[in-house]
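We emphasize that the prediction below concerns an isolated chain of 80 residues; any contacts that depend on oligomerization or on bound cofactors are therefore not represented. The input was used exactly as deposited, without trimming of termini.
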Amino acid sequence: MRLPRDVSGTDLIKKLAKFGYQVTRQSGSHIRLTTTEPSQHHITIPAHNPLRIGTLNSILSEVAGHLAITKEELVDSLFR
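Result of the prediction step, given as a C-alpha cell string:
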C-alpha cells in the first residue's frame, strides 16, 4: 500500500468528516478533530501542505485503530 504524497491537512480534515470527525478547535496551524463514533476520540492534524508522509501515516494509523479497521481499508475509503 502506498500513501498519497500530496495530501494537505485541510484535505484530510474534509475526508475524515465522513467518519464523523468534526473540527473542535484550532491553535495556530494545528487543528483538533473530535468524533463520538463509536466512542469519543480526538486527533490533531497540522494544516500543512503537503503533510509529511510520516505524519500522515501516524494519523491514519491512529484513526484506523479507533475505528477498528485496518489502515489499508481506511486508505482505500479515503483516497480511492
